[in-house]
Amino acid sequence: MNIIGSAYKVCIFGSSHGPFIGGSVQGCPHGEKISTTAIQIEMDRRAPGKGPVSTPRSERDRVEIVSGLHEGRATGAPIVGLVKNRDCDSSAYDAFRRVPRPGHADYPALVKYGGNNDHRGGGQFSGRMTAGLVFAGAVARQVLERRKVRVLAQTIQVGKVRLEKLVPFSAAEKLTRTNAVCCADRAVAEQMKDEIVKAHEEKDSVGGIVRCTVLGVPVGVGEPFFGSIESSLSAMMFSIPGVKGVEFGAGFASGALRGSENNDPFIIRNKKIVTKSNNAGGILGGLSTGMPIEFKVAFKPTSSIAKPQMSVDIEAKKPIELVVSGRHDPCIVPRAVPVVENSAAAVMLDLMLQGGFI
Amino acid sequence: MNIIGSAYKVCIFGSSHGPFIGGSVQGCPHGEKISTTAIQIEMDRRAPGKGPVSTPRSERDRVEIVSGLHEGRATGAPIVGLVKNRDCDSSAYDAFRRVPRPGHADYPALVKYGGNNDHRGGGQFSGRMTAGLVFAGAVARQVLERRKVRVLAQTIQVGKVRLEKLVPFSAAEKLTRTNAVCCADRAVAEQMKDEIVKAHEEKDSVGGIVRCTVLGVPVGVGEPFFGSIESSLSAMMFSIPGVKGVEFGAGFASGALRGSENNDPFIIRNKKIVTKSNNAGGILGGLSTGMPIEFKVAFKPTSSIAKPQMSVDIEAKKPIELVVSGRHDPCIVPRAVPVVENSAAAVMLDLMLQGGFI
Amino acid sequence: MNIIGSAYKVCIFGSSHGPFIGGSVQGCPHGEKISTTAIQIEMDRRAPGKGPVSTPRSERDRVEIVSGLHEGRATGAPIVGLVKNRDCDSSAYDAFRRVPRPGHADYPALVKYGGNNDHRGGGQFSGRMTAGLVFAGAVARQVLERRKVRVLAQTIQVGKVRLEKLVPFSAAEKLTRTNAVCCADRAVAEQMKDEIVKAHEEKDSVGGIVRCTVLGVPVGVGEPFFGSIESSLSAMMFSIPGVKGVEFGAGFASGALRGSENNDPFIIRNKKIVTKSNNAGGILGGLSTGMPIEFKVAFKPTSSIAKPQMSVDIEAKKPIELVVSGRHDPCIVPRAVPVVENSAAAVMLDLMLQGGFI
Amino acid sequence: MNIIGSAYKVCIFGSSHGPFIGGSVQGCPHGEKISTTAIQIEMDRRAPGKGPVSTPRSERDRVEIVSGLHEGRATGAPIVGLVKNRDCDSSAYDAFRRVPRPGHADYPALVKYGGNNDHRGGGQFSGRMTAGLVFAGAVARQVLERRKVRVLAQTIQVGKVRLEKLVPFSAAEKLTRTNAVCCADRAVAEQMKDEIVKAHEEKDSVGGIVRCTVLGVPVGVGEPFFGSIESSLSAMMFSIPGVKGVEFGAGFASGALRGSENNDPFIIRNKKIVTKSNNAGGILGGLSTGMPIEFKVAFKPTSSIAKPQMSVDIEAKKPIELVVSGRHDPCIVPRAVPVVENSAAAVMLDLMLQGGFI
Question: Which secondary structure element, helix H or strand E, spans residue A144, and what is its range?
């Protein structure tokens, strides 16, 4: 089911080459000022640009609000946003019903839906569906920001290029907007761009890692076990196409640590109880500790590549060489940054509403 | 809310030092033979042993089925299992209300519940709650195994010791039962044990990584986006105390790969369409591909260590040195193996029921 | 939350005077042929006509499918339908923020939403929202009819005029379409029309009762307790504006009966086990018995009447006489008939999917 | 699924002749004082007495709290209560697998579960399961009463005997506790008792109607459409075995009324905005108006009667006369009163929590 969340429920619908895609949210507190301009800005960040690092598809993701706002404020009813699909040449996709593309959902979707799914442009599996996530999050973050909760995602790895240093939140917020790869360091951003361009030139693609930080979350948000911050955020993150890993704080590295290294000692700073380090990523027992919530999301390289690949002709039951033509981002990571950021905002609003913090 | 799942709903309840802990499952198909002995075997795997690698707490997790089975078969009603808590000296825990233990939920729980939570033994945050997960999964896996779906978890890392080679499923199934750390290689198991004993001797603890494989899942299980296999499994895994990372297939490593390396080419083997490699971890577009589902779960080192740590006296608002005494596993990974394995079974049954595969 | 259902989830959104209203359904089995013409026919039945018994508002409820269908078949993705709102003079509604209309949600909505709700035309409380229910049901009934499950609602009471005789299903199906009040008897239909016209002439409105029958439901649909057919249908019915009572089979009359009168004896007819009578309304223990499912839904008279009524000026805190002008059905029952019928179909599909019957 | 509610989730489990029945609630605000004595008092009201109007089954529904309370307060974790089943001679029930009892779930349950359900004592369809509802409500009402929200159910009809007058809330609260039928008028109570005794002597049973009032609900509780007070309460009420009708305020009678009669005019009384009449039953647009919430619940006569009835031998496919022996209430209405009352409390707490009123 395409519904997630409890107190702030998010639903996404549509398909890549159908008439519309959209999102619907329920639970936005009535009376909240919600700017459609601010929503559009987030939609535009996700929409494909014109630079060398993204697909040339000329989408204009103009969002239309069809319900839930009245005179600029949430009415308490579901807020529904629609984006028209344009520029849809879907002829290229018919072939993938017979010869599934490696890395794509073509094959399991064909088996699951027996050919009834809308396969054009990836249909309901398309990365374009994430526009609905951005919409849901762009509403949520306005509610959060009014309560001093801020969310920032940034690219920290593209292929073999990794940003090692930690850039402070506010600086990173500005810097990530200055380059096409959403990296908080100009020099590394250039290397990342090169990595993408090189992959593209070689008819290939490249993966990467996004880091996300949520500042200002009060202590005690989240629930033990199934409603933990980690469970809730990871369920959202793993719904983003291409995500293959999620870790919080020290994450996988903590497996190699001793408890005395990994435990974050409590200290008093500015009369507040904080932890000296933040290996926990701001979460203990599923609850926020008041420290920044930190997590990383691994994206696999774009599955669509122009290089010849081996696949199978399903009808003939024979191996066949496949070349996926068409317009594709050689690296989805830069466009995934606003998706991670906004969808994280949707989850955090959900948890704060559940816990009675808003 | 302590409920997870859709067609196979799992609820866990109780607290570490209350009278009972337990689990409840709804959606087990009526008529399924469910062996209570088989459930007890899984419960015993999670229960603390007597070796050098686990806590000396003398629990006997005898599960009592209070509803849902009749003459050894599921009736269609919720199946509820209870485990009595024993041997509960909770006097040690009072101090943690004033001085929170680093790495534990003490501090955020105190803020969240204002002292109303049952803090003894970690209360509702206790690792002991995972007995309910094991119960839920021990029911589910019997349904799955009848359909040739098999689940296996194994320890692949403890601290700095890592099992690099891939042991075939059936061999690993046997080998992991021959040693206390649930490792599929005897020699590496010895090193892991040493790593744990060493940490224990140094009044410290150590983390690790569990790998889990699900064999026999038919093609097309899972849903796009929020109901993806990754979303569903990760939501469950991150509800297990101590988990800080989850990755599928190539996981975080795929961020450094090219598409041409990471895409798994389709081939025909034994007249079946399979993929040559399995970087996808058996999942494309959130759906099973028919290949083994593969994921890894990172556990942080046990938070309770006998070494002195820095914390804060919350009332006096002053730093204070804390020594956590009592019985604690120096490494939770071995006991987490059956938790990962069984809770994964619960998720897979849920997805298969949702998709109409059972 | 505006979501109902489990395996077939229905969401309605929009508001009376916003840009759109709509509905979304999830869980329609992929591959099902869904005719948009058939959907439109149901939408038209609910839309206001031109006769003496309905509001002259010139809506044209043309539904646009924005996702979920591909080449006339369900894709497995959410099916979303939109209806544009037109002809919206909302100036009349501003006054009701100060002087709430008796029988309407104005007063509690004002208190609940503090004036943030879209009050125009009843906003999210508007009867117009039922278009979303009809949409959801018009999809569902196509799936049901393919499995020989048929749903029929009919007006059996308008004010003091009541249809006492039981008209057989197929005859009633035809007859209810021959008159504006959806009554299965021509003569009684005329009396009902007169009752409505008379009320209208007296600047008043009138209530009524709708009876609904579902034929062809296999034995065993529904769940004990919270998932009972009665619980599920009543939750849907009571969400329709104006509904104040729901009863199954003998309903309230069974309170006055003896067990020996009320119990339906089992007999064998045409080699099938059926009951001789159907006081149970086709439901025992929350499950279908294979007999027709029968229930009645009581509608209060339209709240908007042109007669002067007493209300309160909320700001001045003084009594004030109110006349509700504008276009209003003097009796909502005829237009409620397709709402009851289609929304019942949505519930029955949900229960059949849950139970694995489809 | 045996789960209901959103912010206050209720789960019931067990079966009539299994080892335990029980209930579980999630969402009780942590820190609330919950008296187990007060819970036991409600359980005892439902438990069978010794008078002429109830079954002689010697149950002692002693509830044991297995989790969720600590030092008399809610911890925030699920509160689970268990009641041991005793005195279970289930030999009588085997016959009903072959010859279903009229009015009982035997036949559809046999078809649905293929004989796998626990049929003894009605199994998961048993009226005894309502002990779980009483438990859930007995917790909820303590939270409500602390906020001046009071719930009262009373018997207003048994067979042909009906209490016509309206007894004020506080008087009714006392009077209903003075007689075995829970009627707010001593004289009528005697007639009701006679009606039940007469039915019992004639080896028959008799139905009735329960009226329920909720006082003190603030304005604006409930949600439009699917989350309406009527939808939420009716879904709960119709899950109680034997319920065949639910109506709010004027209910079915409003179908015969004019709008000018049925609309409740707003007036000012004691500086508060109230309505002069309460045909709406305290609910407009699904939201509370601040007036008492009023609804009626119709119960069919007990299905088990000692009179011979016609049924069918399912294996022989032949008609057969059936006599249901054993212990049975000739009228379930008196014991249903605390079930209606407490389960209504559970629903109201859920809605108040959802709406942020608590």
Answer: helix A130-146
pLDDT digits (tens, 9 = 90+) for B2-20: 899 999 999 998 888 888 8
Residues in Cβ contact with D182 at an 8 Å cutoff, skipping those fewer than 6 apart: D153, D154, D155, D176, D333, D334, D337
Cα atoms found within 13 Å of the Cα of residue D105, Cβ hemisphere only: 29
Nearest to C6 by CA among B7, B304, B114, D317: B7
Residue B161 token pair: 């010791």
Return the H-helix or E-strand segment holding B80: strand B79-84
The CA-CA-CA angle for residues D195, D199, D202, to 5°, reads 140
**Do C49 and C101 contact (CB within 8 A), yes or no?**
no
B243-248 vs B293-299, strand pairing mode: antiparallel
pLDDT tens sequence across B295-306: 999 999 999 999
What CATH number has the domain bearing residue D318?
Answer: 3.60.150.10
Q: Assess whether pLDDT exceeds 60 at residue A51.
A: no
pLDDT tens readout for residues A90-135: 777 778 889 999 999 999 999 999 878 877 777 778 899 999 999 9
The C-alpha of A133 sits at a distance from chain D's nearest C-alpha, in angstroms, of: 24
Q: How far apart are CA A171 and CA A27, in angstroms?
A: 32
Per-residue confidence band for B47, with pLDDT thresholds at 50, 70 and 90: confident
Asked whether the beta carbons of A150 and A215 are under 8 A apart, the reply is yes
CB contact under 8 A, D224 and A77: yes
> How many CA atoms within 13 Å lie on the side-chain side of A341?
25
Distance in angstroms (rounded) separating the CA atoms of residues A189 and A162: 9
Cα–Cα distance for residue pair C228/C221, rounded to 1 Å: 9
Sign of CA dihedral C15, C20, C22, C24: negative
- Asked whether the beta carbons of residue D255 and residue C129 sit closer than 8 angstroms, the reply is no
At residue C24, φ and ψ (nearest 5 deg) are -140, 135
Report yes or no: C207 and C333 within 8 Å, Cβ to Cβ: yes
Q: Which amino acid is at A226?
A: F
pLDDT, mean over chain B: 93
CB pair distance less than 8 Å for C67 and A21? yes
Structural domain harbouring C314: 3-354
From CA A80, how far away is CA A78, in angstroms rounded?
A: 6
Q: Is the pLDDT of residue D57 over 60?
A: no
Whether residues B77 and C356 touch (CB distance < 8 A) is answered with: no
Rounded-to-integer distance, Cα C270 and Cα C292, Å: 16
Instruction: Count how many domains chain D has.
Output: 1
Handedness of CA D87, B80, D124, B139 (dihedral sign): negative
Chain B neighbors of D124, CB-CB under 8 A: 75-77
> Which tokens hold the place of C43?
């939408």
- Chains B, C: CB contacts within 8 A come to 3
Chain-centroid distance of CA D236 in Å reads: 8
Provide the whole-model pTM.
0.95
Q: Is B64 left (phi over 0), alpha (psi -120 to 50) or beta?
A: beta
- Comparing CA positions, the residue from A276, A268, A277 lying closest to residue B317 is A268
CA distance C276 to C262: 11
What stretch of H or E contains B14?
Answer: strand B9-14
Which of chain A's residues have a Cβ under 8 Å away from the Cβ of C75?
15, 113, 116-118, 123-124
Structure tokens at C21: 């209203």
List the single range of A108-122, A156-170, C312-326, D308-322 with lowest mean pLDDT: A108-122
Q: What is the pLDDT of residues A235-265, one digit of tens each?
A: 999 999 999 999 999 999 999 999 999 999 9
Separation CA B208–CA B154 (nearest Å):
11
Look up residue A243 and give its two tokens: 């995500």
Separation of alpha carbons D181 and D159, rounded Å? 12
Percent of chain D with pLDDT over 90: 81
Q: Report CB contact under 8 Å: A113, C78.
A: no
